[in-house]
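Q: Is it fine to ask for two folds in a single conversation?
A: Yes, each is treated on its own. Send the first.
Q: Here.
A: Result:
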Amino acid sequence: MKRAIVLVALVGLTFGVSGVGGVPASGSDRGRGWRQEQCQFKNVGSRLWSESDVERTIRCVASKQGVSATQALSVYGCETGHPYEAPHTDSYHGPMQYAVSTFKGQYENVKREMRRRYGHVVKRVHNIRANVTVAIMWASRHGWGPWSCA
């Protein structure tokens, strides 16, 4: 039995089979794997988020939370439709248009599960990944009621 286990492990390491000892199939899979696992899609070479980065993040978190990605994207499109805030006079922020106090309360409510599922997510309403992740996690537990265009 020991020989069979050692043989399987050696074959996996030699041919780069994912899942044997946690060794990914290739370096490029390693890069994509953690991004998909933690829903981190901001273009690494840019300081700014692209529309595609935000949409990929929404789709990823919605999928992991069992929420309709179509509805999450619809709420995002209705609330802002773009990753950055235009100059405004109201007190709502980020792609999912949070009041700061609401964001902080919802962040505290979901932070344990969020850290376990998505790694470190900062507690900042203007952080796009945090704004989107908290909103979708909240919606998965309580529905989209707080968003007027849900």
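Q: Second one now.
A: Result:
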Amino acid sequence: MRKLLLVLMTLCVPITAAQATPPDQILDNMQQFGFNYFWNEANPSNGMIRDRNAPGSLCSIAAVGFGLSAICIGIDHGWITRAQGASRIQTTLNSFWTLPQGPAASGTIGYNGFFYHFLDMNTGLRGGGSELSDIDTALLLAGILDCKQYFNGADPTETSIRTLADQIYQRVDWTFFRNTSLQGLMIQWKPENGFNTAVWKGYNEMMIMYLLAIGSPTHPIPGTDWNTYTSGYVYGTQFGQTYVQYGALFTHQYSHCWIDFRNKRDAYMAMPIHGPSDYFQNSRKATLAQQAYCIANPGPKGAGFPDPAGYSATLWGLTAGDDPASFYAAHGAPGPGTFDNGTINPTAVFGSLPFAADICVPTIQNIFDGYPALWGTYGLKDGFNLSRSPDWYDTDFLGIDEGPIVMMIENYRSGSVWQRFMQNTDVQNGMNAAGFVSVVGVDDHTPPSTGQVELRSSPNPFTTQTTIRFDLPQAGRVRLTVHDVTGREVARLLDGWVDAGHHFATLRADHLPSGVYWYHLDTGKSRSEIRGVLMR
């Protein structure tokens, strides 16, 4: 408690530019505060977690999924004991296994293994007339399966967690939600009027849902349904980035909270016309494109709101979240689903840390230090909007936004969630059946855009050292850095004034483990990057 009070006191002291909070301290604080949300905003008697920290809030099953993984992270950091975490998780899973299921409009938690989007915090039964949700069930299941991997002990509680996890996942009848003629998963079901028969397709957060459905050991859908999902993709170039697009960043983050897509390609991503690339790199490109969009669009956001939004290279982050105009909205840009009214939701930046730490960390530092009105019990509140007069600041924290903050900080720093979740046999089977293959190598060469300096490296792959070359059209300050797949800088090869002409630098890999690395060249006027592979 003393440590927590000291941290809260720190948050209440104004910070000048000269006293910028160290990034590691920000990440430490935000991760622990996010964990506290899931621990404190839960009903300990049944494990239900509030959608938001507001009086009368219902339980969001997606928030429960994020919260289950957050508890595992909390144990690893020593915020609770393993026994405390196991007890809470066993209680939660027992509720989702034992509470009644059926087609009735009330008195049930779900139907055919699926769960209603929102549940009563006390009874655990359907709340607010909400829909039976396949995607929110999938996010809940992801947290449940993560717990199965985490709690691998032989004691009765941990054994029970694994048994309950299998029972809950294997009960889900994915074929109930499948539209056989459209060959995909339908959007929702309600006991009052049945299905919305449209199917989920086009890039969004549904990747994890399709993969869990395809990998089900009891009621799977065909692996070919993955092709239905990808058939709706919009692929093209936005602000210098060529990628599968959607505006709101949460669509590029939710599935990645659990699934490690690095160096794994499905048939779509393996096509030469698409890179080839992978979904990890796709999320990086989406993040870079959004930052570039915000830099280019910092002004007012509509009639009646003359103040500029104030976006910059270190002030951006458009995703689903609270909003001064419509309570909750899916903010995002560029690409399909673009909606920008000046609202920034900080979870957007934290959720992209593993993909683009080079631009996310400075932005996090700026938001944390520069906007103290955002600070509160669980870290940074859900959103703010500087284009309103007066500036608008949210009052709430949301579970589905706290989740990516906690999890993606962990994946950025240790990759521990990815490491254990990817060991799950059903997850592996789902990815295999959907056509994913693991690859070792680099993306095909893509010509640099106009004004961009081209990087080349040889040999690639390499075993001990490689040479990185570039031609600088005019003299200037240059920084050439090497980053691992989590975005961490592992080497700085050049950092200073360089004359125009041909240049090279040698990366010696004596201290580096095998894996994929990114070489970043920043000239102040352009940023270039290429990928290299170290194979020992």
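Q: Anything structural to flag on that second result?
A: Two points. The CA atoms of residues 270 and 276 lie 5 Å apart. Confidence is low (pLDDT under 50) at residues 1-18, 441-450.
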